[in-house]
Specification:
Layout lengths: L45 H10 L3 E5 L2 E7 L2 H7 L8 E4 L6 E4 L1 H23 L1
Antiparallel strand pairs: 1-2, 3-4
Helix pairs in contact: 1-3
Length: 128
C-alpha cells in the first residue's frame, strides 16, 4: 500500500487484497479462466440472467465527496436480485466503520452476455 504513484515493471503477486481509493489504469486487466481451474461447469439460465437484467437498473449518482455524476449499479440492488449461484457478483469490503458491498463489474458481463444471446435467438426466430 502506498500513497503515491507507483510503477511495477514485473508481475505483481499479492497475498492480500489491494485497495485503491483512486483510479487504477492499465493496458489490460485479466482473470484466470482456464477450464482446468474449474469444476462442475454448467450453463447459466436465461431466466436467471433476464431476471437480473429486469430487476437492476443502471444509475447515475454522486459519491460521498460529491462532484461529477458517475454511472453504475447499486450492489445492494444486484444482491437482492441474483440467484445464490451468482453470489460471486457481490462481495463485502471491510476496513471502515461499516462493511460495504462491492460489485464485480467484469462478472456482470456474463449476465449481459446470456441476455444478449437470448435476445439474439428471439430476433433470429422472428427473421425466419
Amino acid at each position: 500500500k502506498t500513497t503515491g504513484a507507483c510503477a511495477v515493471s514485473a508481475p505483481l503477486t499479492c497475498e492480500e487484497d489491494v485497495v485503491c481509493t483512486r483510479s487504477v489504469s492499465a493496458t489490460a486487466f485479466v482473470s484466470s479462466s482456464d477450464l482446468s481451474l474449474k469444476a462442475n461447469v454448467q450453463d447459466v439460465t436465461l431466466a436467471d440472467c433476464m431476471g437480473v437484467l429486469d430487476a437492476v437498473n443502471a444509475k447515475i449518482y454522486t459519491g460521498p465527496r460529491g462532484g461529477n455524476f458517475d454511472i453504475g449499479f447499486i450492489a445492494n440492488q444486484v444482491a437482492a436480485s441474483i440467484p445464490e449461484t451468482y453470489s460471486n457478483l457481490v462481495g463485502t469490503k471491510y476496513g471502515s466503520a461499516i462493511p460495504t458491498l462491492t460489485l464485480d463489474y467484469s462478472r456482470m458481463v456474463c449476465v449481459l452476455w446470456a441476455c444478449v444471446q437470448g435476445l439474439n435467438a428471439r430476433v433470429k426466430a422472428l427473421e425466419v
